[in-house]
Automatic annotation (TrEMBL), chain A:
Classification via SMART domains: AAA
Keyword flag Cell membrane: yes
CDD domains: ABC_PotA_N (cd03300)
Function: Part of the ABC transporter complex PotABCD involved in spermidine/putrescine import. Responsible for energy coupling to the transport system.
InterPro entries: AAA+_ATPase, ABC_SmlMolc_Importer, ABC_transporter-like_ATP-bd, ABC_transporter-like_CS, Mo/tungstate-bd_C_term_dom, P-loop_NTPase, PotA-like, PotA_ATP-bd
Positions of the ABC transporter domain: 25-255
Protein name stated in the entry: Spermidine/putrescine import ATP-binding protein PotA
Pfam families noted in UniProt: ABC_tran (PF00005), TOBE_2 (PF08402)
Catalysed transformations (reactions): ATP + H2O + polyamine-[polyamine-binding protein]Side 1 = ADP + phosphate + polyamineSide 2 + [polyamine-binding protein]Side 1
TrEMBL record, chain B:
Highest rank taxon of the organism: Bacteria
Classification of source organism: Bacteria, Pseudomonadati, Pseudomonadota, Alphaproteobacteria, Hyphomicrobiales
GO cellular component terms, semicolon-separated: plasma membrane
Name listed for the protein in its UniProt record: Spermidine/putrescine ABC transporter, permease protein
TM segment ranges: 12-37, 86-105, 117-138, 169-190, 211-236, 267-288
InterPro entries linked to this entry: MetI-like, MetI-like_sf
Native source species: Fulvimarina pelagi HTCC2506
Length: 384, 298
C-alpha cells in the first residue's frame, strides 16, 4: 500500500478552505418531513470532489435520510441537491451517477458474486467482454478473485462486505455512498477495513459520503465530519477541529469524553476569564476566539475540557485550575488509565493518563484523595 | 438422569406426526391399494377377498388380481378422463397464477397497516361452505342468472351467454375456489423479500420494471411453485366443481371415480382409478420436492 505518499497528499487536501473551489455536491436548504416530522431540517452543506465526507450522528439524527435523499430513494420536501452542477430534483435513483453500499449489503441472494457485480454494468448495456474485464478488475481490488462463482450466503460477513463494495464501485460512480459500511464487521476486521477503504478512496479518486454512528470510524477515515443531530448539521470540520474545537456543547459532549464546568464569568482580563463554578471553584481559562466577544462579566458560560488534558496527582497541588476529589473509579485500559474523581459537590470529573512507562508514576487507588490541574488553554469556553 | 427423559420427550414429539400420518394416511392408502387388486362381488362389502379369517389369508391373497388395471387401460373413457383432468387443471393453474400473482404483489406492496385486512379478505370466502359458494356460481352464470341479466341490461348482449355446463364454468369455478391457495404462498414470499434489494437494483441503474423481472420475480419463484402445486394437485381430482358447473359434457377423473363408486358400486375399479390418479400426481410432487431440496442446498 502507498501509505507513505498518502499522508502527504491528505495534508494538502483541503478544498473547503479555498474560496474559489467549486463544491461537487450541494445540499441547498434541504428539508424532508415524514408525517409532519422533519427528519432533515433546512440543511445546507457542501461536499468537494475526491473528499471523504462522514455524516456522524446518533440514530434518528437524520444522517441516513440525507444519504437516501442523495441516492434518490427519498425526495426532499423542500430545497434541492445539486451534484456536479446538475440539479438532482426529479431524477430517479436509477439515473443518478451515485452508487450506494448498503448497511445490510443488499446482495442479490439468487445471483453469484460475479452476477451481483455484473448487474449494474448490464443495465448500461456494456458488452460482455468489457464487463468481464471490469468485474475481474474490481474483484482483484477487493481481493476476492477466486470467489466469483460463490453465492452470497456462502461468504463470510467480511467477504459479503467486499462484494457489496465491489458492486457499488464497478460502475465508477461520481459519488459512492456508504451506509454504515463496517457496522456488521467485528472489531479487528473493521479496523483493517477502515484503512483499506481510505486507501481505496484515494486510489480511485471517487468522492465518498459515509454514514456512521461510530465517531472513531469517522475520525479515522474522513477528511471532514458533519456532526448531525435532530435533522441538522451541528458542525462540519476536520477530525481535529471537531474534537479540539467543538462549537457547541452537544458536539463537545457527543464526540469523545468531556468534562463540562458550568459557571458564571466573574472577571475578565483580556482573553483570560475567571469562571466561578456552582461548586465554588474559581477557574482561570482562556476564551477561545469565537466566544471572546460574547463572554462578559456576570454571564453564564461553560468550560469544556477533555480528560487527557487534565493532569492527575496524588500530592496536593495549589494554584488556579486545581480541583480535588475522591478516586471513585479506575479503569486500566492498557495504553491508558482512566480515573473518575468525585468532587466534593458530587460532580464526576474524568481524567485519563497515558501509560507512557510500564510502572505508573501516580500511585492511586479507590477512595484516595487526588488532585487534578490543567492549563488555561487546555479546554474550550462554550457559550451556553 | 435428565437425559433419557429428554430423549423420550423428543421421541414423542417426533413420533406424533408419524403416528398421525400412519393412521390417517398410510393405513387408508393401503386399504385402497388392496381394494384396487380385489374383485367386485355381490355382497357387503361389495368386493372379495375380505381377509376376514387369518386361516384363509393365503387363499385370499391368491384371489388378488390386476384385472381392474387392465380394464382401465382398455377403456378409453378412463384415459380421456385423466387427460381432460390434467388439461383442465393445468389451464386453471395458469389462469389462477395470472390472477393471483398481481393480487399477491399488490398486497405485498400495500401499506403495512392494511395487510392484515387484505389477508382477511383473501381468507374470508372460507367462512362460507365451499359447496354453497359453488352453487352460488350457478346462480350467477346460468342463462337467466345475474351475469347475463347484467350484460343484457347494459345492452352488451342480446342473447344470454351459455356458460353453465361448459368448461368455461369449470375454469371460473376452479380459479375462484383455489385463488387463495395461489395468493397466500406468493404473498408470503413477496412480503418477506428485503425491499433494500429493489433499492440496490435501482441504485445500480435498473428501471422498476427490469428490477421486477430480475429481482422480485426470481425471488418469489418458490412461492409461485408452491401456489401452482397447491392449485394443480387438488384441481386434477376435483369433483364438486365439474359436477355442479361442468355438466355431463366434461368428464373429469374425480367424477368418473365417483360414478364408479356410487353408480356402479364397483369399489375395486374406483380404487384402481384412485391409485392411478395418485401415481399421476406423484410426478409433480416429486419434481416440487426436488426443486425445494435444491433451493435448500444452495
Amino acid at each position: 500500500m502507498k501509505t507513505k505518499s498518502l499522508g502527504s497528499v491528505r495534508k494538502s487536501f483541503s478544498p473547503w478552505t479555498d474560496p474559489d473551489a467549486k463544491p461537487f455536491i450541494r445540499f441547498e436548504n434541504v428539508t424532508k418531513t415524514f408525517d409532519g416530522t422533519a427528519a432533515i431540517d433546512d440543511l445546507s452543506a457542501d461536499v468537494y470532489e475526491r473528499e471523504f465526507f462522514a455524516l456522524l450522528g446518533a440514530s434518528g439524527s437524520g444522517k441516513s435520510t440525507l444519504l437516501r435523499l442523495l441516492a434518490g430513494f427519498e425526495t426532499p420536501t423542500r430545497g434541492r441537491i445539486v451534484l456536479d452542477g446538475e440539479d438532482m430534483t426529479g431524477i430517479p435513483p436509477h439515473k443518478r451517477p451515485v452508487n450506494m453500499m448498503f448497511q445490510s449489503y443488499a446482495l442479490f441472494p439468487h445471483m453469484n458474486v460475479e452476477q451481483n457485480i455484473a448487474f449494474g454494468l448490464k443495465q448500461d448495456g456494456m458488452a460482455k467482454s468489457e464487463r468481464n474485464d471490469r468485474i475481474a478488475e474490481v474483484l482483484k481490488l477487493v481481493k476476492l478473485e477466486n470467489y466469483g462463482r460463490r453465492k452470497p450466503h456462502q461468504l463470510s460477513g467480511g467477504q459479503q462486505q467486499r462484494v457489496a463494495l465491489a458492486r457499488s464501485l464497478v460502475k465508477r460512480p461520481k459519488v459512492l455512498l456508504l451506509d454504515e459500511p463496517l457496522g456488521a464487521l467485528d472489531k479487528k476486521l473493521r479496523e483493517e477495513t477502515q484503512f483499506e477503504l481510505t486507501d481505496l478512496q484515494y486510489e480511485l479518486g471517487i468522492t465518498f459520503i459515509m454514514v456512521t454512528h461510530d465517531q472513531e470510524e469517522a475520525m479515522t477515515m474522513a477528511d471532514r465530519i458533519a456532526v448531525m443531530g435532530d435533522g441538522r448539521i451541528l458542525q462540519i470540520g476536520t477530525p481535529p477541529e471537531i474534537y479540539e474545537a467543538p462549537t457547541s456543547r452537544f458536539v463537545a459532549d457527543f464526540i469523545g469524553t468531556v468534562n463540562i464546568f458550568d459557571g458564571t464569568v466573574t472577571a475578565r482580563n483580556g482573553d483570560r476569564l475567571k469562571l466561578e463554578t456552582g461548586a465554588g471553584h474559581l477557574l482561570e481559562v482562556d476564551a477561545n476566539e469565537e466566544s471572546v466577544s460574547r463572554a462578559r462579566s456576570g454571564e453564564k458560560a461553560a468550560y469544556a475540557v477533555r480528560p487527557e488534558k487534565l493532569r492527575i496527582s496524588a500530592k496536593e497541588l495549589t494554584g488556579p485550575n486545581v480541583l480535588s476529589g475522591e478516586v471513585w473509579e479506575i479503569a486500566y485500559i492498557g495504553d491508558m488509565t482512566s480515573f473518575h474523581l468525585k468532587m466534593d459537590d458530587g460532580k464526576i470529573v474524568r481524567v485519563s493518563m497515558v501509560n507512557a512507562s510500564r510502572e505508573s508514576p501516580v500511585q492511586l487507588t479507590w477512595h484516595d484523595r487526588a488532585w487534578v490541574s490543567f492549563d488555561p488553554d487546555a479546554g474550550l469556553l462554550l457559550a451556553n | 438422569m435428565a437425559k433419557p427423559r429428554k430423549g423420550l420427550f423428543r421421541s414423542i414429539t417426533i413420533g406424533l406426526p408419524y403416528v398421525w400420518l400412519a393412521c390417517l394416511f398410510l393405513v387408508p392408502f393401503l386399504i385402497v391399494l388392496k381394494l384396487s387388486f380385489s374383485q367386485i362381488a355381490t355382497a357387503m362389502p361389495p368386493y372379495t377377498p375380505t381377509f376376514g379369517d387369518p386361516a384363509t389369508w393365503w387363499a385370499s391373497i391368491k384371489q388378488l388380481t390386476i384385472d381392474n388395471y387392465l380394464w382401465i387401460a382398455n377403456d378409453s373413457l378412463y384415459f380421456n378422463s385423466y387427460v381432460t383432468s390434467v388439461r383442465i387443471a393445468l389451464i386453471s393453474t395458469v389462469l389462477t397464477f395470472l390472477i393471483g400473482y398481481p393480487l399477491a404483489y399488490g398486497m405485498a406492496q400495500a401499506p403495512q397497516r392494511w395487510k392484515p385486512f387484505l389477508l382477511m379478505l383473501v381468507i374470508l370466502p372460507f367462512w362460507t361452505s365451499f359447496l354453497i359458494r359453488v352453487y352460488a356460481w350457478i346462480g350467477i352464470l346460468k342463462p337467466e342468472g345475474l351475469l347475463n341479466q347484467f350484460l343484457i341490461s347494459l345492452g352488451l348482449i342480446d342473447q344470454p351467454l351459455i356458460i353453465t355446463n361448459t368448461e368455461t364454468a369449470i375454469f371460473i369455478g376452479i380459479v375462484y375456489s383455489y385463488l387463495p391457495f395461489m395468493v397466500l404462498p406468493i404473498f408470503a414470499n413477496l412480503d418477506r423479500m428485503d425491499k433494500r434489494l429493489l433499492e440496490a437494483a435501482a441504485d445500480l441503474g435498473s428501471t422498476p420494471l427490469k428490477s421486477f423481472w430480475t429481482i422480485t420475480f426470481p425471488l418469489s419463484f418458490r412461492g409461485v411453485l408452491a401456489g401452482c402445486f397447491l392449485v394443480f394437485i387438488p384441481a386434477v381430482g376435483e369433483f364438486v366443481i365439474p359436477d355442479l358447473l361442468g355438466g355431463s359434457g366434461t368428464l373429469m377423473i374425480g367424477k368418473t371415480l365417483w360414478m364408479e363408486f356410487f353408480n356402479n358400486r364397483d369399489w375395486p375399479v374406483s380404487s384402481a382409478v384412485a391409485i392411478i390418479l395418485l401415481l399421476i400426481l406423484v410426478v409433480p410432487i416429486v419434481i416440487f420436492q426436488r426443486v425445494q431440496d435444491r433451493e435448500a442446498a444452495r
